[in-house]
UniProtKB/TrEMBL annotation, chain A:
Subunit structure: Heterotetramer of two alpha and two beta chains arranged as a dimer of alpha/beta heterodimers.
Organism whose genome encodes this protein: Coptis chinensis
Active site (record annotation): T219
InterPro entries: Ntn_hydrolases_N, Peptidase_T2
EC number annotated for this UniProt entry: 3.4.19.5
Protein name in the entry: beta-aspartyl-peptidase
Class of the enzyme per the UniProt entry, highest EC level: hydrolase
From TrEMBL, chain B:
Record note on quaternary structure: Heterotetramer of two alpha and two beta chains arranged as a dimer of alpha/beta heterodimers.
Origin species: Coptis chinensis
Site, Cleavage: residue positions: G252, T253
Keyword Metal-binding: no
GO MF annotations, alphabetized: asparaginase activity; beta-aspartyl-peptidase activity
Protein name: beta-aspartyl-peptidase
UniProt keywords, alphabetically: Autocatalytic cleavage, Hydrolase, Protease
Amino acid sequence: MGGWAIAVHGGAGVDPNLPTHRQEEAKQLLARCLNLGISALRTSLSAVDVVELVVRELETDPLFNSGRGSALTENGTVEMEASIMDGPKRRCGAVSGISTVKNPVSLARLVMEKSPHSYLAFSGAEEFARKQGVELVDNEYFITEDNKGMLKLAKEANSIVNLVSIITLTSKDVGTMVRDIYEFDYRIPILGTCSAGAGAIESALQMNGLPISIYAPETVGCVVVDSQGRCAAATSTGGLMNKMMGRIGDSPLIGAGTYACDLCGVSCTGEGEAIIRGTLAREVAAVMEYKGLGLQDAVDFVVKERLDEGKAGIIAVSNKGEVACGFNTTGMFRGSATEDGYMEVGIWDQD
Amino acid sequence: MAHERFRGWASRLALGLLSKPNTPKQQKQVTFEASTLETLKPAIYTTLTETKTQNTPGVYSLTFREMGWAIALHGGAGDIPITLPRERREPREAALRHCLEIGVSALKAKRSPLDVVELVVRELENNPHFNAGRGSVLTNKGTVEMEACIMDGNTKKCGAVSGLSTVVNTISLARLVMEKTPHIYLGFDGAEAFAREQGVETIDENHFITPENVERLNQAKEANRVQIDFTQPIQKDPPEKAPFENGDSQIGTVGCVAVDSEGNLATATSTGGLVNKMVGRIGDTPVIGAGTYANSLCAVSATGRGEAIIRATVARDVAALMEYKGLSLQEAAAYVVEECVPKGNVGLVAVSAAGEVTMPFNTTGMFRACATEDGYSEIGIWPSSMHT
């Protein structure tokens, strides 16, 4: 093989009852971003430039949960995070707690290129942005009506909403559910309060039937291998709806939500905590490196074996020009294309 | 020669022999009653001697190595000069010894490894000689921003915090994030707010700032670079390599890993970060898989140049090599330190489920200490003859 390849995602875990017009909207956005990336690859931009470009587009569009259109914290504000990694030399940059920078992924790139560090957060990161002359906007810019509505409903149910995984609640025992935190009131200590947890979960199941569960994407990402075999990956998100202030998820954590090395580029989405615990992105690269698995096998292995009860999706490219994707959620917004003309945009398993 | 329960033993046995331990262990002989030899497999890894006695057919005796608890802790890896004056060396050695004793007592008292690593790291945080808690190095604004991370091997539950400036024991806050929130990682204002909500001990930021660190910051600013946290004043001459390359902290961070005799693993790491770091800079310590990681095979805590450790996903790679390439703890850790991170940038401590311990580093020195149940113990700063 060889040649370039690109994959994008807009989150794993989709409500099976998502209205068709919303599905179409999502697919169109994914296709548009893919085409953007493809055009960029044809002009021989390097992989890391392409992933940044594509994720910028995903952040700017309010459809998915990143940049404008991010999920809201418990205080109704937006706190975004992102990371980017360049396979050759494994350079990386990440930011968290961003509330005034239009494109967090570009700030992450600046951290990688223009600072002595790899990861900046909160006011320090905003200060760095200001010094770098990055365009700053009000937090209001990122907040959409859709998300304000969702936050309200989430608060009413008094739980943190990871709308990805409501569907899977029924299959586990209550104790595990409380611990696994799909629908969870963080004020309740984890141990010994199954009844309270059950209460929260019941309301979660109800939420599943409510309109708010309709459209709940989580995180965007892009992985690219260019025609010179260089891999790169980038991920960006607004995080969990109704999350605690200061909560950091998997997207800015190198090795968890994002990873790229000589062999591959990986971006993950889904349950942040499960992805962190499973160091998912690094895992794909590690089984390729240490077990000699091919790209798709590696992705399948990690999704099957490394997620335990967690729900997530992965997109990946290899330095050989292959592209792969895997998820154990109900659907994942994704698109992929390779130089030999293959192109696909999909949401469900059968796509 | 006691009869022992087969179940718990067998898995530890398999782990122990798979890992090819390096530290000397006692050989023990145990007698089992079993209907057939097959019942006692995974016997491919054991030396089985069939002993038939007169009255009791189906009695077998096995030889195996006894596993036990193990603990290792560090106070930072870096360019620690051999000429370190006594008055700077001795308090740190004493602290390492003290913390080791605390950890060992706790393990002997059957505290869980998670409790043990938290306990030891709290002690290290309270000690002003190490770059964590009190004694943390300062940001470029002269403030303190501490971070910490804790992880439980069996469940892979973890907790991390960053950007704290008033919490007395950051590692305990990380543990609270793990146990009391649905999240893994809280930072900055959100983390401080959580601390207050939980009623953890907080104190004025000045408590953490020591004159030594104010001095270090001044020197770093003079040299106008992010500084290696030496334990002696920096040279005025610029280093050979580019400022960023050589300038990042190579000391700083404290950590502890522990395993009990059942094979339960835990790790904890805590730090003030880099001298003269940008406000908001996060290092490897709270990034799961970089500076801190534990699963059912091993527990790892790394120290050194944060940016390099993140890139190399050091802690995760040690475990991954054990798992996917079947390397022993010592081999995996040595490989990561020697091959995956540029020289002068990393050190780590690690223990395996079988009770082995290893403390490799590719810097001039690393403040470290370890002990295992069979009586082995070590406290050191520079390479000893026992380490590669």
